[in-house]
Amino acid sequence: MYCARCGEMLPDDAVQCPRCGLSSAPPEMPRNHLTLAVLACFLCCLPAGLVGVVYASQVNARYAAGDYEGAATASKAARSWSLAGIALGSVYAALYVGAIVIGAMHGR
User: Fold this and answer.
1) Is the entire prediction scored with pTM above 0.90?
2) Which residue in 77, 97, 83, 74 sits closest to 44, CA to CA?
């Protein structure tokens, strides 16, 4: 394994680069938000939830491949799309209930 900063060859058990001091330990794995994305699919808004599921499924694969920045980006995207799906589904549900109430008030 080589240091990402200076290119120095690192021993297998190295915690940091002996030449430049860069830590060789991987960052903590970000959450994949898969549960939130699946809930967005089934309970609220299918299109946004599906995009959330796609991004959530990329988090673990990117982290395992060593693409830590890509894993963090996919995690943020999965959370954003899932929350957007939940918000859109909630707005739709509120409008639907409002339409039923207005219809019932007018006797139709």
Assistant:
1) no
2) 83
